[in-house]
Here is the input.
Amino acid sequence: MRTLIAYLSYSGNTKETAELIAGNLAADGDAADMHRIGIDPPVSASAYDLIFIGAFTWEMGATPDEVKDFVLEVGYKPDNVALFGTGDTQFGGDELFCLAVDKLARFYQSRWDGLKIEQSPRGSQEFIVKNWLKGVLHDVKNLT
Ligand SMILES: Cc1cc2nc3c(=O)[nH]c(=O)nc-3n(C[C@H](O)[C@H](O)[C@H](O)COP(=O)(O)O)c2cc1C
Here is the structure.
């Protein structure tokens, strides 16, 4: 299975989440390609069986511009996108928490609820990442 993990991270939380996803995939024998949005050269999304896109949430629930540019760069809506992201409930409570994840999941009509992590995924939230990933992989492996 060819898997892409594309993510944007300023202060490291979304990067940590991306790395946790990659680590769990690797433990199952599935190596993923990592793509740092806004840094790495463009990817060919159609080459992948599964695409993870990770984004933090910005000013009042906004999706960062770099992520919007990435979406445009991909140029179509793959039907195999799973969304994840980090946020902080201190910036507007539950209503704005990780809103970029919901917006992206809606845009891609993702078949999976987005994974939302409060700041760093390390510690107890690692299990949330693991369980979410298990659900995504279960569906993908049943489809392929
Ligand atoms: C100016 C600013 C605005 C933010 N607005 C939100 C927000 O509306 N919703 C949210 O869930 N998190 C918000 N956050 C929190 C970040 O999304 C959170 O710290 C995230 O983990 C950062 O990801 P990164 O470490 O990968 O850069 C905001 C942070 C900053 C600095």
